[in-house]
Write a structure and sequence with these properties.
The chain has helices at about 1-20, 35-40, 50-65, 70-75, 80-90, 95-100, 115-120, and strands at about 125-130, 140-145, 150-160, 160-165, 170-175, 175-180. By secondary structure, the protein is α+β, with helices and mostly antiparallel strands. The strands form two sheets. It has a four-stranded antiparallel β-sheet, covered by helices on one side.
């Protein structure tokens, strides 16, 4: 009986070692915790400030700056993607070529007439979700500031198992249609 228990514990220890599991006393504090608690998260503390939607906007900006227009199209929401494809067809160009030009008629937000150009511009970049965090939401508004420009809002929607960004004047968010701006 004692040897069965020791074999079991030895097997358990071996399984933990093989799978890379280890016991850790570090905690993952939540947003707004004290600096001493955040220090326990080491280099991952910025993850606590980000959501899937804010990360998607960061990827959109990085793709715009890198010129990866296929990734930009993938990160756009259904309405924005439809506008880009329709305008590209009207112009006899590919959607990627139209995006690369930086001018897509129909894309625009309340405080930003050309969101693609603004997001790709140089300067500090800050993004946060509005309202209280709710992991069940499928639509959120992001407050964005690039460089010295004023803050503006970007609607984000969770579709196709990923966060997508809408760069158009109006989309349904929350309990009804809210104006993001534009026409």
């Amino acid at each position: 009986m004692a040897s069965d228990i020791s074999r079991f514990l030895g097997g358990l220890a071996l399984a933990a070692l093989v799978t890379g599991c280890s016991f850790s006393n570090q905690i993952m504090p939540l947003h707004g915790e004290e600096p001493a608690a955040l220090a326990l998260s080491e280099g991952r503390s910025d993850w606590l400030e980000q959501t899937g939607a804010t990360r998607a906007l960061g990827r959109l900006r990085a793709s715009l700056r890198a010129g990866d227009m296929a990734q930009v199209i993938d990160l756009l929401g259904p309405s924005s993607r439809a506008i880009v494809r329709a305008r590209a067809a009207d112009a006899g160009r590919t959607p990627e070529a139209l995006l690369k030009s930086g001018e897509v008629p129909g894309l625009g937000l309340r405080d930003v007439s050309n969101p693609l150009r603004t997001l790709a511009s140089d300067g500090a970049f800050a993004v946060r979700e509005t309202g209280a965090f709710d992991p069940t939401r499928r639509e959120v508004r992001l407050v964005v500031q690039v460089g010295e420009s004023p803050e503006f809002q970007v609607p984000a929607v969770f579709v196709d198992d990923a966060w997508r960004l809408e760069l158009v004047g109006r989309i349904a968010v929350g309990n009804g249609a809210e104006a993001a701006g534009g026409e």
